[in-house]
Amino acid sequence: MPKVLISDKMDPLAAQIFRNRGIEVDEITGKTKDELIAMIGQYDGLAIRSATKVTKDVLAAATNLKVVGRAGIGVDNVDIPAASAKGVVVMNTPFGNSITTAEHAIALMFALARDLPEADKSTQAGKWEKNRFMGVEVTNKVLGLIGAGNIGSIVADRAIGLKMKVVAYDPFLTPERAVEMGVEKVNLDDLLARADFITLHTPLTDSTRNILSKENLAKTKKGVRIINCARGGLIDEAALKEALDSGHVAGAALDVFVTEPATESPLFGTPGFISTPHLGASTNEAQVNVAIQVAEQMADFLLSGGVTNALNMPSLSAEEAPKLKPYMALAEHLGALVGQLEGDAIKAVAIEVEGAAAELNQKPITGAVLAGLMGVYSDTVNMVNAPFLAKERGLDLREVRHDREGDYSTLVRVTVTTPEGAKSVAGTLFANAEPRLVEIFGVKVEADLTGEMLYIVNVDAPGFIGRLGSTLGEANVNIGTFHLGRRSAGGEAVLLLSVDTPVDDALKTKIAQLPGVKTAKALSF
Question: Taking Cα atoms as reference points, which of 351, 324, 357, 328 lies closest to residue 338?
């Protein structure tokens, strides 16, 4: 039974979902880093919010950990590269608090437009300063959207409902999607020059850090109002302070800061500035939604291999997993085969699918090939860290999908580039379930890849099989299955046979010295 630790305060429904799915769960919150390190080794899954820091040291101690689930969007508190290297899947729940965050951005926009916090403070102080708080309408104003993903698209929808004109800057926004959203796709400079309100909805990356820099703030329309409910660091806070003081920016509302908790900031007390303590996801509905989602996603992964909203491996739904499982087994075997045969000579990998395989999600198949291939170099490889290890080794990767159907109704081919040229292996599924090798380096051969095996390339000549059988018999090695293919009569032949016990180096050397043998390698699957 898998075991999960919930280390941050979370809606009780999360623990209940784990238990209902047959997963043991402990709810232990508020632990220090050292306390977490001491206990994490016994868990297969770790469910967190923002308080728990999943550092390299924590991951090093997590000997059984398979998945970290973040109930929420941001994963700044998870060392994703270290998790990937460790083979741990990192998931978040990007949709559970999307509406809540979008609504908070709209609320802050209204608060800026009508100066609501200051008006409230003044009125409760016994003043009646109607003329002081002259606001602006949002109707017919231009909203500049920086980031048009899930949350940004909801903000756009609400803004359009308020009769605003929405322009959007997002390198990943397609023209078709912009039309569907009802927004105008623009470049960043155009947005800065035209927008009456700017709201940010983009992750914090190297390319988005300080996207509203001092230079870019100077490009904005005088009197602009800025809202950030996404991530601290998207705005240069010192430059924003200057722009507010000068009057170039009429108002700014921040729910997020570079340093959090933000107990002090140069922006605090600045006229026209509104702040909230990272409330974007703080509604009852959002807290319930993200707790439910993270528990369901983690349970799917631990019980069926389904991968949803993973940040460091391809997604694989619980519905897809059973259908893809035999393909992934085939792909991993093909990767392991070519890896054991070519090893360090491999410089690039191409993974091709055709027939029925071409209709499936190819990313998990690619991940499985790399897991098999990289298993030659490390004992702790899986689909999560295999791409990371392949990149470390400088392997070029290419994926190809063919609509055609060849000799087989479904086929997966792995081609590696070596100093000797391209070499490929291919496999299919027998009865849509059993992985079967059908080609190795241009030679047709049908074989199961399982257990301990011998790969032999020899000159096709009478008497060879008898000599090989005698050699194995003398070493007390029993043959399980025997698969033979050849390029032509009397030419080069390929032999794959399974054996009941591993072939040691001494026996392998004996086989290699048999007349006609060109290559002899022991394989393990």
Answer: 351
pLDDT tier at 387, thresholds 50, 70, 90? confident
Q: Which of 7-21, 202-216, 217-231, 396-410 has the lowest mean pLDDT?
A: 396-410
Q: What are the DSSP calls for 147-209, one per residue? A: --SHHHHHHHHHHHHTT-EEEEE-TT--HHHHHHHT-EE--HHHHHHH-SEEEE-----TTTT
Q: Coil, helix or strand for 124?
A: helix
Q: What pLDDT score was predicted for residue 40?
A: 97
Do 3-95+285-304 and 98-275 show the same overall fold? yes
Q: How many residues would you count in the chain?
A: 525
Question: Is the confidence at residue 336, as pLDDT, over 90?
Answer: yes
The pLDDT tens digits for 69-128 are: 999 888 889 999 899 888 899 999 988 888 999 999 999 999 999 999 999 999 999 999
231 as an active site residue: the answer is yes
Among the listed residues 49, 201, 225, 278, the single catalytic one is 278
Query: Tokens at residue 41, please?
Result: 């080794």
CATH architecture entry for 319-445: 2-Layer Sandwich (3.30)
Q: Look at domain 3-95+285-304 and name its CATH class.
A: alpha beta
Q: With a cut of 80, say whether residue 315 has pLDDT above it.
A: no
Identify the CATH number of the domain defined by range 98-275.
Answer: 3.40.50.720
- Contact predicate 368/331, CB 8 Å: yes
Which one from 35, 215, 260, 319 is the annotated catalytic residue? Answer: 260
Cα–Cα–Cα angle for 525, 384, 315, nearest 5°?
A: 110
Q: Taking a C-beta distance cutoff of 8 angstroms, is the pair 25, 86 a contact?
A: no
**pLDDT confidence bin for 459, thresholds 50/70/90:** very high
* pLDDT in the model for residue 386: 83
CA distances from 22 to 3, 17, 91, 195 (A): 10, 9, 20, 52
User: Does domain 450-525 correspond to CATH entry 3.30.70.260?
Assistant: yes
Exactly one of 70, 225, 231, 333 is catalytic; name it: 231
CA dist., res. 389 & res. 395, Å (int)? 9
Owner of token pair 């075991």: 3
Position 308 confidence tier, pLDDT thresholds 50, 70, 90? confident
Mean pLDDT of 184-199: 97
Q: Are 7 and 29 in contact (CB under 8 A)?
A: yes
Which residues have a Cβ under 8 Å from the Cβ of 243 and sit 6 or more positions away?
Answer: 217, 218, 220, 249
Strand segments, DSSP code E, in 330-478 are 348-355, 396-402, 410-418, 421-430, 434-440, 443-447, 452-459
Domain boundaries, the chain: 3-95+285-304, 98-275, 319-445, 450-525
